[in-house]
Amino acid sequence: MPELTYREAVRDALAHALRKDDSVFLMGEDIAEMGGSMAVTQGLLEEFGPKRIRNTPISEMAIVGSGIGAAIQGMRPVVEIMYEDFLTLSMEQLVNQAAKHRTMSGGQVKVPLTIRTQGGAGWSPGAQHAQQLEAWFVHVPGLKVVFPSTPEDVRGLLWSSIYDDNPVVFFEHRTLYPLKGEVPTELEPIPLGKARIHREGEDVTVVATGRLVHEALQAAEAAESEGISVEVVDPRTLLPLDEETIIGSVCKTTRCVTAHEAVVRGGFGAELAAIIQQGAFDWLDAPIERVGARFGPLPFAPAMEQWVVPQAADVLEAIRRTVARS
Amino acid sequence: MATVEEKAGTGKKRVSNDALRGFFREMLLIRRFEEKVEERFRAGELPGFLHVAIGQEAVATGVCSALTREDVFASTHRAHGHAIAKGTPVDKIMAELYGKMEGCSGGYGGSMHLYDLEVGNLGANAVVAGGLPAIVGAALAFQMRDEKRVAVAFFGDGATNTGTFHESLNLAQLWKVPAIFVLENNGWAESTPAEQQLPLPVDQLGKRAAAFGMKLIEADGQDVEAVYLAALAARDHALAGKGPVLLHVRTFRLTGHFVGDPQVYRDREALKQERETKDPIRLLGARLELTDEDLAAIDAEVTAKVEASVEFAKAGTDPQPEDALKYVYA
Amino acid sequence: MASEVKLPRLGQGMESGTIVRWLKTEGETVAKGEPLYEIDTDKVTQEVEAEATGVLLKIVVADGEVDVGTTVGVIGAQDEDVSELLAASRGGNGSAPAAAPVPDARALEAEEPSNRLLQGKPSDAETAAPRSSLTPPVAAESRVKASPLARRMARESGVDLAGLTGTGPEGRIVAEDVEDAATRGAARVALESPAAPPAGEVEIVELTSTRRTIARRLTEAWQAPVFQLSVTADASELVATRERLVELVREGETRPTVNDLLTRVVASALARHRPVNAHFVDGKIVRFPGASVGIAVAAPSGLVVPVIRDADRKTVQQIAGARADLVSRARGGKLKLTDLEGGTFTISNLGMYGMEQFVAVLNPPQVAILAVGSIQDRPTARDGELVVAPAMTMTLSCDHRAIDGSEGAEFLRTVKAFVETPALAL
Hints:
The structure holds three protein chains of three kinds.
Chain A: E1 3-5, H1 6-20, E2 24-28, H2 44-48, E3 53-55, H3 60-72, E4 76-81, H4 91-98, H5 101-104, E5 114-119, H6 134-138, E6 144-146, H7 151-162, E7 168-173, E8 180-182, E9 196-199, E10 204-208, H8 211-225, E11 230-234, E12 237-239, H9 243-253, E13 256-263, H10 268-280, E14 289-293, H11 302-308, H12 312-323
Parallel strand pairs in A: 2-3, 2-4, 4-5, 5-7, 6-7, 10-11, 10-13, 13-14
Antiparallel strand pairs in A: 1-8, 6-12, 9-11
Helix pairs in contact in A: 1-7, 3-4, 8-12, 9-10
Chain B: E1 4-6, E2 13-15, H1 17-42, H2 57-65, E3 72-75, H3 80-85, H4 90-97, E4 121-124, H5 132-144, E5 151-156, H6 163-175, E6 179-185, E7 188-189, E8 192-193, H7 194-197, H8 208-212, E9 215-220, H9 224-242, E10 245-250, H10 268-277, H11 280-288, H12 292-314
Parallel strand pairs in B: 3-4, 3-5, 5-6, 6-10, 9-10
Antiparallel strand pairs in B: 1-2, 7-8
Helix pairs in contact in B: 1-2, 1-11, 1-12, 2-9, 4-12, 5-6
Chain C: E1 3-6, E2 16-22, E3 29-30, E4 35-40, E5 45-49, E6 54-59, E7 64-67, E8 71-76, H1 83-90, H2 105-118, H3 124-128, H4 148-157, H5 175-183, H6 185-192, H7 209-222, E9 226-234, H8 236-247, H9 258-272, E10 278-281, E11 284-287, E12 293-295, E13 297-299, E14 302-304, E15 307-308, H10 316-331, H11 337-340, E16 345-349, E17 368-372, E18 376-382, E19 385-399, H12 405-420
Parallel strand pairs in C: 12-16, 16-17
Antiparallel strand pairs in C: 1-8, 2-4, 2-7, 3-6, 4-5, 6-8, 9-19, 10-11, 12-15, 13-14, 17-19, 18-19
Helix pairs in contact in C: 1-2, 4-5, 9-10, 9-12
């Protein structure tokens, strides 16, 4: 199987869709000649031309909104919001428009729009370039929310997002772009709403998203050496959510840790914990632990940043708490 | 589409009397429809939040008459007129207002979210300027596919103060998409008068186009002929690949912001005078020199249509509560 | 400052209650609100919560019936001397078994400080108490701390959480603790049972209302002319079939036990031997078309026999579900009268206690009862070879007024056949 970086895998899915289908086109800031602020769309302008690889003004509302309009007219636009912090500028269009057209029209309208964005800490960008806001969108009926953590997943899920007839907010994690991984030779779509069990275990389930999937896997290795067997599940799609796999895993292991880079309070882990306690109450042998960032805007200084965002050690601590004996 | 003639000896265009009579009939239909909506709301029959556009009928009829069925538009919370003028039967609109499955949005939208994809109604939008960016996108799709269609956004003077407006017009002009931005300038942002919300004199709001280098076309919004001709010109401009147009029409809202608005903020005398001098239907009737019999006949015809729409709506099917989530996802 | 544990009035018209057992032993730490002991009133068995935090210094009444207001125990600080308090309070106890001195004014004095405490005023005793004698705040828990999984497992296996010591964080009972308790249950019970009364002291146990009913009915049964029949069956297939059924169990379903399977095959046998599936009432024999099998359950208040209705028409899985529900409610004292009615036959199984075989007393008006012993590997001759196979001895008690020996024997032979080849029961 070939190996791609997470970045190349995103680009590969985009290029495949652009080649296959004239209705697919890209819009976003700096995505053409520059190839995107994260170099994801490098080379696409050369292959597909400026009509389909469109640099936009710095106008998040118009980027998302025009994507909505084109999508309703039968296109499959993929728009890029450079940093997920800037999704805030397009919230009206995402939340009031994209998510609601279909219901408000009594089913007449479809909005097959993909909104790609990226974020994440670990490189000292400070408070306005590294938030993890995925949980906000899980609260909006009508949107789908995807957050892949590996090259294979990002490629297969981006493809499925582009071909989904609903608006999909597609989160990429900045620090994962250089991550290498094997991908199928032929692009294999991965259905939205299916979790991936990265690692099977007996004692604790860690449900992790984004970068924390990799931190969780590291923590699981460390736990293994302490005799704790950890299962790591990545929902991959936060909305719709593969509740069955997650609840099934927790019923098996009887303990659960949720882990994401976003702040704990009101984070996606809260939703997971609610779903798990409902579906696996009688199987739970310990309180569900939540791992996430400390509750503050991200500070600049590396030492402070490192302390605020969760790492493998935090996941390991939480794992230990779930199996602790007094 | 109405017939456009050369005005004898002047080189100026004019609309045939027959066409104007057709406009008159449609504007009166909109008027009677909205009066009925007010009446039924007050009778407690209609749920929700209703906004009528009494006084602005010439804009709806003038613009939509210049469009083809394939052209699309997005409207505002004050959308009944646009929807009727673009060709959605009043039955379907009234049924929507009654929350029936036969409604143009199946009972999911209501007055502020009238959709009818078949005739190019992409949806009335209850967020001020909310529909503008999608109109840029729709026009972009037409441009990318080389389709001879325009996308039209209706919005008011209040919307020109939003970031969405500026981002949308900016992008539309940048990409020269075939869009028409119809600025229905009635001088009110809900209850706030022009002088408290517009940095420009109300009649000069069209100047905003210059900021984007966008073509500006202006017309008297109470003169349906003028609106129609201006919209035709705008459409020609957009389809010629010259870029979008800001179509600025000054109009008058002869009622409150919403049905039931006591309009405590409004000068009664001024309103009375506007009603006497700015009513587009009255103005057109005078110009057409309609006789009392003519008028009575047209009125009877449209009133019967409106009455029938109420009957149709009341006889409609109530949706099943559990169908509420049927269209959350495609 | 020590405070007395007095029997509370738990409902209108309640004058007395019978202490069934203590959930804490002397010297154990208790927190206010924590279940302290169980009492049996004429209506229900229920837990009584501690009204003070401290150490259970003395259990005055270990069990038996006492009047409302009687001092049944004392909670105080570690090593606190409560002899005076006890001497005083005994005076107020009309029915306390010990000697009853004349009521003493000190009893009232003794109560005062605790009242002050309630009002938030410091008492001398409290301010004088050394810090080290204060109860750790961790004990301030109002209920048994157990994980949801541990609770479910306890429910299903009949383990009483109150008797367990949790090994999880802050003493939480976790799944492992319940597993441990269930597997080593017998040993645990022996260890944790209250010590026998000192030599020479006679213990008088008052009958609970349940116990009284048991006594009356079984004495009644004893008057019937009863004969017994025994048979030993090879249980290999029964065990194997049960294992196959367990593999088919879906998540959330109860795992069937060998007993559930036995209930099913016995019900099938009853459907084929109607003389055994009968009541003897007022000199008449009433034979039933369907088999509703009572299962004897050792509940905290005594033996109860909830009924699995129409067991001959239920699947093993349905029987398991019904059984789990009945057993858990029986142990929780939550059975309804309707759960106990309508049985046409009863199975009593003491196999889990290691009994190889025993004779059960009739459960009138039923005319027969099956006593089932443990399944044990026993040497047996099979096709002329001596083999070791799991075997089980069953003893049928029959009311001779309704059943003849041959009828009983035929029934028991069918049961044996069904146990050895469960498929025949279909």
